[in-house]
Amino acid sequence: MEKNQKLMWRRIDRKIDMWRGEEYITEFELLQFLEQNRAMLQSFHLEEAKRLIEQFLLFLSETSDKNWTESEWLPLLRQLQEEFTVEPSRENPSQPSQEKQPLLLIIDDDMEFITYMKNYLETNGYQVIVALTGRKGLELFYEVHPDLVLLDYVLPDIDGISLLTQIVEKARNEFTPIMMVSAHVSNEHKTLSYNLGVWDFIGKPINKDIFLPFLNNRLSYSRQILKQTLQDELTGAYNRKFMERELTNQLELCTEQKDYCFSLAMVDLDHFKSINDTYGHHMGDQVLERFVDVFQKLKDPDDTISRYGGEEFTILFPTTDGEEAAAKLQKWREKFSGIAFVSGNEEFHVHFSAGITETTSMSHGKEILEQADKALYHAKHSGRNRTSLYSTVLEDIEPEEELHLVVVDEDPRARKAMTDYFTTHPFVGEKPLKVKTFETGEQLLKSRWYDSETDYVLLVDMAGQRKDDIELITQIRNSYPTGNIAITILTEDVETERMEQALRADVDDYIVKPFEAEEIKTRLDVLVERMFD
Ligand code: GH3
Ligand code: MG
């Protein structure tokens, strides 16, 4: 219900913005807008607002040639808009969100067909909105994001085919079925429509008894596909693709509405690796599932949680400022941290850290994610099991001290594997990491790799038969300060003369092959914390 109210509020707001640019509007335009809203309110079951519109309509006439100035029409729309102002936390937050009624958009100028279908579908659990012209249909398609579109082949202003070409790409991306409907079904019309991407071409009159199961079928397929492409299988949270789409939608609202505000939280489980290590990955998976499940039960209907990667999640809180979002996370924290997970005879509790950024003006999605990530970084560094708000911790976030990982390895696959791994794990010892690779020590020394302000970890592969490894290590130790360069060597065999030479040349650590990239990270974490913190 709240969603519909917000939708109506936004519709009116957009119209106000649009009309403000005009010297005047015609009475017919005003009447048409109110009538469309009345039709929507009917299906949204917002009776009071509908009655208000009906009162307004009593004084308007389709044939009037009166022009309305802003001082006349604005108070009317503002009064109507007030009906849709959503009071905060009216919904019971402990209730899980309700399954949404599917929303159908019928674009057709055949009044008899529309009234009949709307009535029939609404009594069968659908929400139906209608557009009598192609132009209106196009506007509503982008505004209300219908779950399915019924499109008339012949429309009064633009034909169905040209409308189809304008909506088909978005419909395809969102798996929104489009059904073409026409009283005149020819093979040529069908071929053209199918080629352009309609799911079905249906002749009028429609047999409603067949149509309903047919419609349900189409919708359940489209829902299933959407679910699979946008949902994370393990936790049931949305995936990153969904989050990116939602973030774009939220940013659009920021450009459309002056005071629109939303928040994004980046959330990460604390010491999750040790949960896996101690209780096994299966237990780790259960923790992840429960983590999301608790949030889904507490959240407000419009909040969405998405799995950003591994044990990191993002949450979008529409129409919510940073403080409100933090309060919501606090409820989640209390509930989730209170859960006692049981493994054998042991009980354990899990915590999480979060970073929030609130957005009131147009920014880039990337920037918002970076801000939330910085706030999360702050929360982790301030002791974990807490939430940091980007706007308040901004000053405490120190400029990032980058750590450079320099890999010298003659095997191109090893160099690539290392770069790939650390691109997805860009922190070592909690410092942001940058990777540079070289085939030989000579190449490294020739390059301008060093800067006295930066900390370095050199990873030198000594498993190959090259002779310049020891020379490289010796030269680095003799010609550069030792304080900001840690050297680790990779070796196949510890008990060799070269290894002994290397250790004498003052390497800090060695790792014996074969190893997993993850093992290197763990070793580097320790080394970096010991040497550079
Ligand atoms: P921090 O408090 O700094 O976040 O420490 P952490 O141990 O949570 O972070 P780190 O990034 O070192 O480890 C994350 C671990 O999450 C490593 C990875 O194996 C594990 N992980 C990622 N995805 C899954 C999954 O789907 N299931 C399980 N069980 N583990 C996962
Ligand atoms: Mg973690």
What can you tell me about this protein's structure?
α14 links the parallel β13 (352-359) and β14 (387-389). The protein is elongated, with a radius of gyration of 31 Å. The protein folds into four domains: 1-85, no CATH class; 97-230, Response regulator (Rossmann fold, 3-Layer(aba) Sandwich); 240-394, Alpha-Beta Plaits; 403-532, Rossmann fold (3-Layer(aba) Sandwich). The chain has 20 helices and 20 strands. Strands 16-17-15-18-19-20 form a six-stranded mixed beta sheet. Strands 4-3-5-6-7 form a five-stranded parallel beta sheet, sandwiched between helices. The chain has 533 residues and is an alpha/beta fold. The protein binds 3'-deoxy-guanosine-5'-triphosphate and magnesium ion (MG). InterPro entries: CheY-like_superfamily, Diguanylate_Cyclase, GGDEF_dom, Nucleotide_cyclase, Rev_trsase/Diguanyl_cyclase, Sig_transdc_resp-reg_receiver. It comes from Salimicrobium halophilum. Residues 260-392 form the GGDEF domain.
